[in-house]
Design brief:
CATH architecture of the largest domain: 3-Layer(aba) Sandwich
Number of domains: 4
Number of strands: 17
CATH topology of the largest domain: Rossmann fold
Radius of gyration: 27 Å
Helix content: 40-55%
Structural class: alpha/beta
Strand content: 5-15%
Length: about 625
């Protein structure tokens, strides 16, 4: 069977997505590959298709139990024999799985990196035909990545011990240039084909909001999206517990996840979220990696994350099905203090020299600074993220909060000159609070203690509020006229580019949101967005939506019977395609995107029955527009 027939038979798709086919072709030719593809781009297909076509076994190294279970569930549903080996199994279960694998029962085995060095697994691997080793979440192997796991270094030792070197494929959704180089080098990829399909997730709407009350904002948002599933990330366990209690008190079906809960509580809460019993999850960053829930419609960050890598990975858990989803960050200045405290008390993974520890701390501070700038910028948020990962967009995406706001431009060059003069006068020894207070002419005890009230610059911007001065300083930081030092005091320093401002060769322009656009409702935001991607279900008319709900109820019923997440049965996208195509027989149903032969054998007749009951066996149009446009 060739790759296209394999794709259709097992996964129900008639064509490959961008980047999939070229990676599959290189793997099948025996070449190592590294695929850097955004969440939802179909990375798993890139190694699962070759795994089915290779004569031997493919081992998939995966960092989290939840990811393995989801992937194995999905493969078994598609008629592919797969298994996982991790700490959730006892020793007799592991031995049985390895015996069945050795007998040719499984084509794909997911394994935790810690298991690679066990005697039993090594004995199995040396005797079995291992065609490919796939490293999922490959950024975990880089010490300079945001999610380094020392256990990933065991992969390299494991491969060296095999009798015959298999093809090595590695995949990740987020990797800066340094991390990409690390993956290739540390994994020892041999002349790899490296594909970066881009980091842009066009279906995601990005926003930074600064509400007076975060709890009130979250409550209102959930109220406006009560039928939808979402994740709310908090920086600390205390914030998770407090917000959880408040939402529960309001009668919201919510659950929570953090390292302070028992393993059984975490497992149960995660299942409640995945199975839509509790569609809202409040969690620390301990939750989410490897969660393959496709219908998460929003991710709210209650606190600012520590880095753009963390933010993009966590925000990327929204809209994995390619449908429209929202990623909203609620920013406050206190978030910076919380993150600095967490970084200072971070437990280091692995053993490092003092020099390495200092380099890691410096990189952590740099990432935090870039995250702060993301929260402060008035430029396109999507462009900012893409630029961080070494990619450039159009500069105006039309689907982020900043692109949809109306701004007025204010020339603040004169104030910027006074800011630079003031920083020079105090010999670049203070941070943003002292500088802003000094220039505003505040007569606080702390400023008198530092002696800044005696400088000529004291009060040079009197008449401006400190918050306005800080806004200009933040703009100058983003414009690289100023920088902050990489320590907890965050001292303001002047860059060489500030000379052009002092000479009058460069202006400092502040973009400030107009008052009326600050009060825009969510509905009017979406209305203004010409580029905001509509959900597939938005194409359905009222009758189509009724059928869609009937099919969702049937999917939930089957999911409960089989004790699997609903999206494992069929995705929302597949259900919408059923509503558009209105299949009335097996041949029709196999034309639906996401319905393969095995899925049809398991569920096809029940869904055909539901469609026939609703339509009376008469095909009618359940969508707006022309079929060619869909």
């Amino acid at each position: 069977m060739d790759k296209l027939n394999t794709l259709k038979k097992y996964f129900g798709y008639s064509a490959f997505r961008e980047g999939q086919e070229i990676l599959i072709d290189n793997i099948l030719q025996g070449r190592d590959v590294l695929g850097i593809m955004p969440t939802g781009a179909g990375k798993s297909i890139c190694y699962q298709i070759p795994a089915l076509l290779f004569s031997g076994i493919t081992l998939v190294i995966s960092p989290l139990i939840s990811l393995m279970k989801d992937q194995v569930h999905a493969l078994n549903q598609a008629g592919i024999n797969a298994a996982y080996i991790n700490s959730s199994l006892n020793e007799s279960q592991i031995s049985k799985a390895l015996r069945l694998a050795a007998a040719g029962q499984y084509k794909i085995i997911y394994v935790a990196p810690e298991r690679l060095e066990t005697y039993e697994f090594m004995q199995f691997a040396r005797q079995a035909e291992i065609s490919m080793v796939t490293v999922d979440e490959a950024h975990c192997i880089s010490q300079w990545g945001q999610d380094f796991r020392p256990s990933y270094l065991k992969i390299v030792q494991f491969i060296r011990k095999l009798e015959k070197r298999p093809v090595i494929s590695a995949f990740t959704a987020t990797a800066t240039e340094n991390v990409k180089e690390d993956i290739v080098c540390v994994l020892g990829l041999n002349n790899p084909y490296v594909l970066v399909t881009g980091f842009d997730r066009k279906n995601l709407y990005f926003a930074v909001e600064t509400p007076a009350g975060k709890d009130k904002y979250v409550l209102q948002y959930i109220g406006e999206h009560e039928a939808e599933s979402g994740i709310i990330y908090c920086a600390t366990r205390k914030n998770v517990d407090t917000l959880y209690d408040k939402l529960r008190a309001e009668g919201i079906a919510v659950t929570k996840y953090h390292a302070g809960l028992s393993s059984e509580e975490r497992r149960q809460n995660q299942e409640d979220f995945i199975y839509d019993k509790s569609p809202v999850m409040i969690a620390t960053n301990a939750f989410g990696m490897g969660i393959d829930k496709s219908n998460v419609r929003y991710v709210i960050h209650y606190n600012m994350p520590q880095s753009p890598e963390n933010y993009y990975q966590e925000a990327g858990r929204a809209g994995r099905d390619g449908e429209r989803a929202e990623c909203i960050l609620l920013y406050s200045a206190q978030d910076v203090m919380i993150n600095r405290f967490l970084l200072e008390n971070k437990e280091q993974k692995g053993e490092y020299t003092q020099e390495e520890m200092e380099a890691i701390a410096e990189r952590d501070e740099e990432r935090l600074r870039m995250m702060i700038y993301y929260c402060l910028t008035t430029d396109c948020l999507r462009e900012y993220i893409l630029r961080y990962f070494g990619e450039h967009g159009a500069g105006h995406c039309g689907n982020c909060r900043n692109c949809l706001r109306e701004y007025e431009q204010i020339d603040v060059t004169e104030a910027a000159v006074k800011i630079i003069t003031g920083i020079k006068e105090v010999r670049q020894r203070y941070g943003i609070n002292v500088i802003a207070g000094m220039l505003a002419g505040e007569n606080r005890a702390k400023l008198r203690e530092y002696g800044v009230t005696a400088y000529e610059s004291f009060g040079s911007l009197r008449g401006m509020r400190e918050v306005e001065i800080k806004e200009i300083i933040n703009r100058m930081l983003v414009q690289n006229l100023l920088l902050m030092t990489n320590d907890k005091y965050a001292i303001l320093k002047i860059t060489s580019e500030a000379d052009a401002v002092m000479k009058g060769d460069t202006s400092v322009i502040l973009r400030r949101a107009k008052k009326e656009s600050r009060q825009e409702t969510e509905g009017s935001r979406r209305k203004k967005s010409g580029k905001a991607k509509a959900r597939k279900s938005d194409i359905l008319n009222s009758r189509g939506l009724e059928l869609f709900e009937q099919l969702r109820l049937l999917r939930t019923e089957i999911a409960r019977e089989e004790n699997v997440p609903p999206y494992i049965i069929f995705s929302d996208k597949t259900l919408v395609d059923m509503c558009v195509r209105v299949p009335l027989n097996k041949a029709d149903m196999l034309e639906v995107s996401g319905v393969g032969e095995n899925k049809f054998e398991r569920y096809g007749e029940r869904f055909l029955g539901a469609i026939a009951d609703y339509t009376g066996g008469i095909r009618e149009k359940f969508y707006f527009g022309d079929a060619e446009e869909l």
